[in-house]
Design brief:
- There is one protein chain.
- This protein is mainly β and 246 residues long.
- The chain has 2 domains: 5-149, Sandwich (Jelly Rolls), CATH 2.60.120.200; 205-244.
- Helices cover 2% and strands 37% of the residues.
- The protein contains 1 helix and 15 strands.
- The protein has a 6-stranded antiparallel sheet.
- A hairpin with a 2-residue loop joins strand 6 and strand 7 (83-88).
- The relative contact order is 0.15.
- This is CNTP4 protein.
- Residues 1-164 form the Laminin G domain.
Amino acid sequence: MSALKDVISLKFKTMQSDGILLHREGQNGDYITLELIKGRLSLLVNLGDTKTHPSNAQINITLGSLLDDQHWHSVLIEHFNNQVNFTVDKHTHHFHAKGEFNYLDLDYELSFGGIPVPGKSGTLSRRNFHGCFENIYYNGVNIIDLARRHKSQIYFVGNVSFSCLEPQVVPVTFMSSSSYLALPATPGQDEVFISFQFRTWNKEGLLLSSKLHQASGGFLLYLSDGKVKISLHKSGKALSDITAGN
């Protein structure tokens, strides 16, 4: 569809920190990509022919943070002449493309959730989106409604369903510094396997500990200056510290 003004809006939610949300590409290497990178949304506008458009050949605007929190987030992209408004959750970035945005030579095809036609784009190293979309509108047209009614101008690749399944997550929140969970030890056990996910605004705090028995030793897993550290102790051996993450 051709229009003087392009308006694209959608809502998404995901637990993945990386993925392509939107891609549109032309024959000459021009493209627009909306991508989730480490929980932030990046809008990349690329004018492929740098000889024709030597200045401002690439624009990259990043908005939002922690967008991989399995909550709905809204996105709005408005393009009129050389003015572009990029909005994520009511935070808007306005920018001008110095007139060259007018020369974007784009095919009239939009893809949501990934990049079609392998080998066509220089952005193929990036991941497809894994999560839910709702209310995808392109110039007022409800794209998901067209897809649900199997209209010929829409096609799917891969596994897609018209529902948004919630992951089976059972969270627990420690409301004060004195609250914790305790699990009784199993006598004679010489191996332990523990896994969990956590989120906090605090840079310090004890995550996990086993009681330090003189005979068998134990460990502490804790946050220190925003990094995860583990202290291991065994009887007769010195305390060893390992740091990971940031």
